[in-house]
Amino acid sequence: MAIAEMQKMRMAVHKSVADKLIDKIQRLGCCQFIPNSGEGVDGAAIIPLRQRLRKLDDQLAEARSVLRFLDPFATEKGGGMAKAFGDVPNYTLSELASIASADRFPRVVSETRVVEKKLSDTRADASRATGLIAQLSPLSGLPYPLDLYGRGTEKITGSLLSVNKSNVEPLKAGLFSSFGDMIEFHELPADEKAESRIVSILYPRESAEALQEIASSLQAVRIDVPQGLSATPGEELSVLEGELLEAKERESSTIKEITSVANEHYSLCQNCTDYWNIERAKIESLISGEQTEQITLLLFWIPASCLDRFKEAAAPFESLTEVARLTPEKDEMPPTLLYNRRFTEPMEPLITMYGTPTYGKMDPTAFTAPFFYMFFGICYGDAGYGLLIAAGLMFLLMRKNVEGAIKKFLEILIIGNIGAVIFGALTFSWFGDGITSFSFLNFLAPLEKLKILDPMNDPMTMLSVSLALGFIQIMFGLVLAFIGNVRSGETFAALADQGAWIVFLCGLVLGGLSAGGALGMPANIGWIIAGIGAVVLVATQGRSKPSILGKIFSGVLSLYNVTSYLGDILSYSRLLALGLGSAAIAMVVNMLTHMVSDAIPVVGVVLGIVIFIIGHVFGMAINILGAFIHSLRLQYVEFFGKFYESSGEDFAPLAISTQYVRISEGAKAP
Predict the structure, then answer these.
(1) Which residues, in sequence order, are CB contacts of 320 under 8 Å at separation 6+?
(2) Three-state DSSP class for 577?
(3) Domain end: 276, 307, 335, which one?
(4) pLDDT tens digits, one per residue of 428-445
(5) Rounded to an integer, what is the distance from CA 78 to the centroid of its chain?
(6) How many Å apart are CA 220 and CA 199, to the nearest integer?
(7) Does any domain span residue 663?
(8) Which of 220, 453, 466, 549 has the fewest CB atoms in 10 Å of its CB?
(9) What's the confidence (pLDDT) of residue 263?
(10) pLDDT bracket for residue 117 (50, 70, 90)
């Protein structure tokens, strides 16, 4: 429920043990190295490290290239969902190193390049044949060899022209008028709806220029004959279709060969990629420091709670290592590492998705989690839905080795759905009105004793509860901002900016409720409290203005911000809306189930069961999405804006991080 204290450290390590020590630090996963701002003490000393980095980059580039090529063909690589839920190979780091250091990878690259070129050539042949077939298909009715329209003969040549169908006859008439029987004109068959026609013209070579002038005057466009084709279009099409069929068969055979290569070598490329990324991270950390011929000087951040673990790891190299604690520069901001207890820890990814908390300020995770879980439960609002999903996700977590952000997300859904069970029980919503609608569920009728709210028949009470929860969270946000200012030594700002608004808003609420007879106390008390808050706001909110009039005017104008607070509180009415939506969808599904099953004998029962299952599955899916998004929106927009400072930088330690496999040794980042 706090931000971990960070220590800035400097470590001088002899190069003879630098690799071994950095390997141990990586296994700890608790040191974030600070890049060196200069080029190092000795530029030549860093050259070996850069050479190692360059070699790894080349290997990684080849491995990624092979993976990109093999990925569409690998059938035994496992699906994305399987990987997300922990179904990945498990290795020790030494096993992964042994796999990556073997000589198999160069052979894999060689084999892959061979089949890649084979596939590329085959597809190029197929593409060429397909393109030529597309070009020649409109010419299929041409009885003459294509060579006649390319090279021609000693005295005769030909042209293929595309011309608008309205200009075909004028072109024909113009040519015969100019050349008489010295030309042969032939119009190729075409679709009647087509606007253009293809015509073949055979003519003496010496008439080429004159013929071109006539054709140009009628917007006739010359069609170039594909090079290398000499037979008639029909004959060439027959040959090309055979070539295309043969290319497709070769492509199919090549794909089978590639699939075999992919299934054999895909996992090796993944393993090598993960190991080389681990090695690359170590070398980058070493390069981040200053280098001399014998010494590497490194700066890093480490959580104070991890110092003992670090000292224990560095103990074997004590004689060749010197470690000192440094004071951060005045404008230097340490990275932020959140530290929360089991109940609130799953919320951390949602907090950092909005923005990382500023180091030294407040971590909102513990304050956000109870509200989010409660709002999720209200929005989802059905005990049957919540019970099914919570139980299913808990079973999934027990059966699968899920880690990281996905595990935290599932835990959020489990806790949120437990909230839905509680709220659904309090509103007697079990698959909507399922208990009263279906006789086989009547044994659950005693659960109605838990009912204390009826949002469907009494929405105003639920609306009041929603707005009250909104007011409480908004006030809580102002209290947190008040505490933050006091801790920062800005007590006057806390009193003027948050304290005055708390007094003013609470006074308005007390006055309004008292005037409506809800509290049984004189309304004047609330108005007096609100007046005190208003006076403080008018007196302080313009304090940055230079003139008296400016201060007064700004102070009075600040009272208009009450509309912003009112809008924020009204946003919590979505708790009612989404809760009613969940119940309404479930009730409609139950009603349709009854209508169908009662209207059609025998078959209706089967259809009713189908409608019941599909309808409630749809209801669970669509409502859980809305409950999650809108509950999160209330935190991001209405709550965080009151107190949360999110200009921090995530703590990113050197750690064993993999994409395709799981390492069974080495500590995770704290």
Answers:
(1) 13, 14, 16, 17
(2) helix
(3) 335
(4) 888 888 888 777 777 788
(5) 20
(6) 10
(7) no
(8) 549
(9) 87
(10) very high
In a domain, 107, yes or no: yes
- Which CATH number characterizes residue 100's domain? 1.20.1460
Candidates 126, 146, 127; CA nearest to 136 is 146
The domain that holds 305 is classified in CATH as 3.30.70.120
Are 138 and 186 in contact by the 8 Å Cβ rule? The answer is no
In a domain, 655, yes or no: no
The residue type found at 82 is A
For residue 7, CA distances in Å to 173, 241, 299 come to 94, 73, 11
Could you identify the residue written with the tokens 């992964």? 96
Q: E-strand spans in 72-128?
A: 90-91
Local structure of 564: helix, strand or coil: helix
Domain range for 14:
7-34+289-335
Q: How far apart are CA 526 and CA 532, in angstroms?
A: 10
**90-91 and 662-663 beta bridge pairing:** parallel
Closest CA relative to residue 540, chosen from 480, 508, 485, 492:
492
At 667 the pLDDT is: 47
Total domain count, the chain: 4
Residue-averaged pLDDT of the chain: 86
Per the domain annotation, does 379 fall within a domain?
yes
Residue 474 identity (one-letter amino acid): I
User: pLDDT tens-digit profile of 308-353?
Assistant: 999 999 999 988 999 999 988 888 899 999 988 888 889 999 999 9
Please check whether residues 262 and 299 belong to one and the same domain. Answer: no
DSSP 3-state of 2 = strand
How many other CB atoms are there within 10 angstroms of residue 227's CB atom?
8
Q: Is the pLDDT of residue 72 over 50?
A: yes
- Pair (502, 386) in one structural domain: yes
Q: Cβ(608)–Cβ(597) under 8 Å?
A: yes
Last residue of a domain, one of 335, 361, 393: 335
